[in-house]
């Protein structure tokens, strides 16, 4: 019988993963909630856990070739305080979790959970983050949009480990992020909205819009974004109705114990409208 | 089961333990340290807070595997320090304790904050307490107590 393990190096982790199927446990702040039972009982995993949080070689954040590289075991708190962390990601981390959770939780854990309400995912979609995966023999790089395929489903193979996340260095002149939930931190979002704009001489050079918790994955439409590229900011009010209708046709929220589809859709579109209004001001 | 080496309240520990056991259960059931409490069991209330390498953590969300090689301090260990005495007296003087269930977690959150920011602003105090729930005091007295502790303990952190 395969048992829970703590690998002492990345290489050891990849060798173990080539020999058996494990549940990868990083900061554990989400998985222990999912797997816990009564007080005093051991959380139950369907596959033996592989505890990677102690892998020091994956605990880093640094700028390399104009990109920000974040190792898989780097805490959210470390990411929050790094001077090159994009502002949108800083905003998200601050409202995502309390300090106690930020000290343990990791970005790669949030990615691997692949929850439609995963807070950091809104920022990672907006920034076109890349996920780097390793198995014993190969490395591959995959965009966040391609990596997350459905609710809690990703492209990761059983023998692969997320080893780092790569982000572009911030170039946006304006960012917006709102998470709607019952509490500022430590709450799962009912709806999340994020927007990035790069404007030069009143012309929109780049604009990105993403919604969390209103679709099976984070929702982003490049087609709608492209309709705004190159436009003067004063043109946005005239386009607003079409833009809102475009996103209204894509947003497909669910009813659950946290909220209902009407509230989620209405709120998501209200947040979008406020963001569009802020562009033309 | 596996063996892990770590530090608990200043003492080196070698535990032969189930790696998936929650740190909270280990502290309460194996070490009989009852300061960390189980409130929500989901990382939302902060009643189980401990310090791991001087930083606040929810012991209900930490598997024993993740304390290997680290130093854990509970409220019982922290209570032996001068900094604790300063925080405790400030909490008493400001009326920041009523039922007391959240208090160990609040004091751990205070120490974690002051260790990294000895002279915090009110806004920084609120962020530091954002993972700790109190159903009695309404937070104002706790915020006042932390402000007072920072003032009285100048030079201690």
How does the SSE layout of this entry go?
The complex is a heterodimer of chains A (281) and B (157).
Chain A: H1 10-19, E1 23-25, H2 31-35, E2 49-51, E3 61-64, E4 67-71, H3 76-81, H4 87-96, H5 99-102, H6 107-113, H7 119-126, E5 130-134, E6 139-143, H8 144-147, E7 148-150, E8 153-154, E9 161-168, E10 174-180, E11 191-200, E12 203-212, H9 222-226, H10 236-250, H11 261-280
Parallel strand pairs in A: 1-2
Antiparallel strand pairs in A: 3-4, 4-9, 5-6, 5-9, 7-8, 10-11, 11-12
Chain B: E1 2-8, E2 11-17, H1 23-30, E3 49-52, E4 55-58, E5 71-73, H2 75-78, H3 82-93, H4 103-116, H5 122-128, H6 140-152
Parallel strand pairs in B: 1-5
Antiparallel strand pairs in B: 1-2, 3-4, 3-5
Helix pairs in contact in B: 3-6
Describe what you observe in this structure.
- The complex is a heterodimer of chains A (281) and B (157).
- With 281 residues, chain A is α+β, with helices and mostly antiparallel strands.
- In chain A, the strands form four sheets. Chain A has a five-stranded antiparallel sheet. Chain A has a three-stranded antiparallel sheet with strand order 10-11-12, sandwiched between helices. A two-stranded parallel sheet of chain A has the order 1-2.
- In chain A, helix 4 packs antiparallel against helix 7 and helix 10 packs antiparallel against helix 11.
- Chain A is globular, with a radius of gyration of 20 Å.
- Chain A starts with 9 loop residues before the first helix and ends with a helix.
- Chain B is of the alpha+beta class and 157 residues long.
- In chain B, strands 2-1-5-3-4 form a five-stranded mixed sheet.
- In chain B, strand 3 and strand 4 form a beta hairpin.
- The radius of gyration of chain B is 15 Å and the shape is globular.
- The mean pLDDT of chain B is 97.
- The chains are: A alpha+beta (281), B alpha+beta (157).
- The interface between A and B is large, with 35 and 39 residues.
């Amino acid at each position: 019988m395969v048992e829970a393990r703590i690998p002492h190096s990345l290489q050891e982790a990849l060798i173990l993963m080539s020999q058996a199927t494990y549940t990868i446990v990083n900061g554990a702040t989400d998985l222990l909630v999912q797997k816990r039972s009564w007080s005093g009982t051991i959380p139950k995993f369907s596959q033996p856990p592989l505890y990677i949080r102690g892998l020091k070689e994956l605990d880093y954040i640094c700028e390399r070739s104009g990109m920000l590289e974040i190792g898989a075991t780097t805490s959210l708190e470390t990411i929050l305080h790094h001077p090159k962390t994009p502002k949108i990601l800083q905003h998200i981390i601050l409202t995502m979790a309390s300090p106690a959770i930020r000290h343990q939780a990791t970005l790669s854990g949030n990615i691997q959970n692949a929850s439609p309400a995963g807070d950091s995912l809104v920022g990672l979609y907006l920034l076109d983050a890349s996920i780097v995966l390793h198995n014993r023999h190969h490395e591959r790089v995959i965009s966040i949009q391609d990596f997350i395929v459905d609710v809690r489903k990703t492209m990761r193979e059983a023998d692969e480990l997320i080893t780092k996340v790569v982000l572009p260095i911030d170039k946006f002149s304006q960012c917006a992020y709102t998470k709607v939930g019952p509490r500022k931190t430590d709450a799962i979002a009912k709806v999340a909205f994020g927007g990035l704009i790069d404007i030069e001489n009143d012309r929109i050079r780049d604009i990105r819009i993403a919604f969390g918790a209103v679709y099976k994955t984070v929702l982003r439409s490049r087609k709608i974004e492209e309709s705004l590229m190159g436009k003067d900011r004063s043109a946005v009010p005239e386009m607003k109705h079409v833009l809102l209708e475009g996103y209204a046709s894509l947003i497909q929220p669910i009813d659950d114990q946290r909220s209902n589809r009407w509230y989620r859709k209405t709120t998501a579109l209200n947040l979008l409208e406020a963001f569009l209004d802020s562009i033309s001001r | 089961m596996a063996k892990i080496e770590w530090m608990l309240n200043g003492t080196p520990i070698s535990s032969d333990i189930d790696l998936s056991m929650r740190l909270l259960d280990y502290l309460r059931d194996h070490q009989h340290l009852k300061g960390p409490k189980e409130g929500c069991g989901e990382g939302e209330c902060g009643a189980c807070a401990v310090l791991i390498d001087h930083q606040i953590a929810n012991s209900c969300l930490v598997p024993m595997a993740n304390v290997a090689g680290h130093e854990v301090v509970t409220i019982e260990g922290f209570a032996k320090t001068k900094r604790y005495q300063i925080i405790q007296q400030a909490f008493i003087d400001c009326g920041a304790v009523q039922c007391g269930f959240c208090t160990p977690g609040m004091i751990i959150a205070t120490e974690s904050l002051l260790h990294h920011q000895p002279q915090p602003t009110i806004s920084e105090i609120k962020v530091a307490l954002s993972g700790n729930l109190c159903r009695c005091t309404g937070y104002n007295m706790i915020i006042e107590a932390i402000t007072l502790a920072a003032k009285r303990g100048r030079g201690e952190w």
